[in-house]
């Protein structure tokens, strides 16, 4: 099955959603409406009441393990987790899933959204007129197969020169602005960039409000932010901070370089890992802190995190990290 809404929230159990969460359960989903409708306390309970596990972007392939009335228990292969070796587990509304389109996973070229969000247009005319009425707002890292011989028989090179890319989606052929995506061969791993490039990508999301379980440019949690920035640069990390700290190369505080991940644990760094940030250089960190706050750059020295620092990890050129899927 494949996700057929802009962002699908993955719940702990079918009975986890509350009345306030209905906007996140529909198809089409109203992710912005859901986020603005919640109070601070309602956002906090996504975590404290263990309601949400993660999210999956439009076009993501998931494996359905079982169905229960209008719900599907799924695993998400592109989000590694020790919770399940097949991928990150949780429950999604069946209405937010559809059958994988014919040839969906066989297309040689992929388009991936590079802007924070962009519109997936229903027709080429809508794209040219910038008519959003029939479009869908999709997030950074949304990845869709390119239709190589697209509209009017044009080649990929011709369509990109004309300012658009035609993609195959759960809703059929759709159109993306060429300057909002990058196109690459699906069988070729993206080349990991430098640590400085990782930090620059992370800075695109400064001031984005934190969302527990968030995996999109509508809101990230701490590990979802690290996962997404690294995936853009060709490295697929585990989904959760407690798993991310188990891979890569250990780095001490005095050896940190831009782009390394920083991990923080309870009991002044001796307990379980509960937070992750990206080292931004000059003893600063960029991170998605907690509910009620937004992505920020802060100094480590004298911060609330300094006493909880339990080590850094480096993933660029590390033999212990999966290549991008």
UniProtKB/TrEMBL annotation:
<keyword id="KW-0645">Protease</keyword>
<dbReference type="GO" id="GO:0008234">
    <property type="term" value="F:cysteine-type peptidase activity"/>
</dbReference>
<feature type="domain" description="NlpC/P60">
    <location>
        <begin position="192"/>
        <end position="316"/>
    </location>
</feature>
<dbReference type="GO" id="GO:0006508">
    <property type="term" value="P:proteolysis"/>
</dbReference>
<dbReference type="Pfam" id="PF00877">
    <property type="entry name" value="NLPC_P60"/>
</dbReference>
<keyword id="KW-0788">Thiol protease</keyword>
<dbReference type="InterPro" id="IPR000064">
    <property type="entry name" value="NLP_P60_dom"/>
</dbReference>
<keyword id="KW-0378">Hydrolase</keyword>
<dbReference type="InterPro" id="IPR051202">
    <property type="entry name" value="Peptidase_C40"/>
</dbReference>
<protein>
    <submittedName>
        <fullName>C40 family peptidase</fullName>
    </submittedName>
</protein>
<dbReference type="InterPro" id="IPR041382">
    <property type="entry name" value="SH3_16"/>
</dbReference>
<dbReference type="InterPro" id="IPR057812">
    <property type="entry name" value="SH3_YKFC_2nd"/>
</dbReference>
<comment type="similarity">
    <text>Belongs to the peptidase C40 family.</text>
</comment>
<dbReference type="Pfam" id="PF18348">
    <property type="entry name" value="SH3_16"/>
</dbReference>
<dbReference type="InterPro" id="IPR038765">
    <property type="entry name" value="Papain-like_cys_pep_sf"/>
</dbReference>
<dbReference type="Pfam" id="PF23795">
    <property type="entry name" value="SH3_YKFC_2nd"/>
</dbReference>
